Amino acid sequence: MRHLKAFQIFHIAATSRSFTEAATKLCLTHGAISKQIKVLEDYVGKPLFVRHGRHVSLTSDGETLAHYTQDAFRTLQAGIDKVMTSSHTAIDVSCEPTLTMRWLMPRLVDFQDQHPDIDVRLSTAGGPVNLQRAGFSLAIRRDDFALDQDYDKVHLVEEWVGPVCSPEYWQTVCPSEPNENASLKASPLRLLHTHTRATAWKTWATDAKQTVLLDGQHRHFDHFYFCLQAAIDGLGIAIGSYPLVKDDLARGALIAPFGFIPSHHDYVVYKERHTDDLQHTAFIRWLQQQLSQMIPTDSIN
Questions:
Q1: Domain 4-85 listed as CATH 3.40.30.10
Q2: Which fold has domain 160-264?
Q3: pTM for the whole thing?
Q4: What DSSP state is assigned to residue 295?
Q5: Chain-centre distance of CA 151, in angstroms?
Q6: With 80 as the cut, is the pLDDT of residue 298 above it?
Q7: Which UniProt keywords apply (predicted)?
Q8: What is the CATH number of domain 90-158+266-292?
Q9: Phi and psi for 161 in degrees, rounded to 5?
Q10: In sequence order, what are the residues at sequence separation of 6 or more whose Cβ sits closer than 8 angstroms to the Cβ of residue 219?
Q11: 65 pLDDT band (50/70/90 cuts)?
């Protein structure tokens, strides 16, 4: 289209009280504004402004044109915003705190090595989430709650759980190697509980047919992360989610004397419906690949 510069100047002048004010907004001279308005008036063949001394007002034709230029520049700005947003390489991810600290953060460097152009920004939170209101692209959760929002729910991995404790603690209560016939001869177990997974021990004991263990001592913690750290420190035995304890099992900080069983819950990603952002897809696929290794292969059932 011809005279795009003139249309931009007209758009600004139409919302100004004078050409002088429009010139100040555009960092141009009064004469430059007047010249471009004259070019546009010659182009459309009609006057667009009425001069009132130092002030101007739109003619009826000017008001009609201003309506369309306003829509046009608003649409153009929306397009610019869309391009800038789509080229932004940050993914804002909400993830459960313990999963973030004990599993995701130690592995995130692998994703960054594979995708150096994508910046993953983590925030820790659990339970229900409103992605748009909180400003998140994705939310990684254990699916143990109801969610009101209609999000896409992407499966990551089935969760397996089992009692975990330090080798030193186990020796104090059962001076034998952990195996499928583990028996407690020295003293009852001190069961470590967390308020964020209040029924973890009861659910596991019922599913594993080990309800006799519930007769032990009990100690409670406010958060799951503290509960697992207490187990590492030898304060008792906790129900561990396999992805959250796998590294500690591998380095011998924890043992799982009764193995692991399915918890009837999954780790999932929530995302807005009908969105196919390539960066989000890359991150979700990486999560699935990494978490596919988080199913125990030698569990005692």
A1: no
A2: D-Maltodextrin-Binding Protein; domain 2 (3.40.190)
A3: 0.67
A4: S
A5: 13
A6: no
A7: DNA-binding, Transcription, Transcription regulation
A8: 3.40.190.10
A9: -135, 160
A10: 190, 191, 192, 193, 230, 235, 236
A11: very high
